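Try this one yourself first.
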């Protein structure tokens, strides 16, 4: 029996530098656009703050 709440969204937490250096490359954007919607939390690990939520 699956108790996973279908209302919950999962987010992939990514350090801001990794997001800017890797995830914003056009080739990576093309690959990710073919996938199901991925939700991101972009964070600054030094200041320990969330910079951006992407749904």
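Now uncover the answer:
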């Amino acid at each position: 029996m699956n108790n996973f709440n279908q209302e919950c969204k999962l987010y992939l937490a990514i350090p801001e530098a990794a997001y800017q250096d890797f995830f914003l490359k056009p080739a990576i954007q093309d690959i990710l656009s073919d996938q199901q919607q991925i939700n991101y939390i972009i964070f600054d690990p030094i200041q320990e703050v969330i910079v951006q939520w992407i749904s």
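Discussion: Residues 7 and 47 are 30 Å apart (CA to CA). DSSP finds two helices and three strands in the chain.
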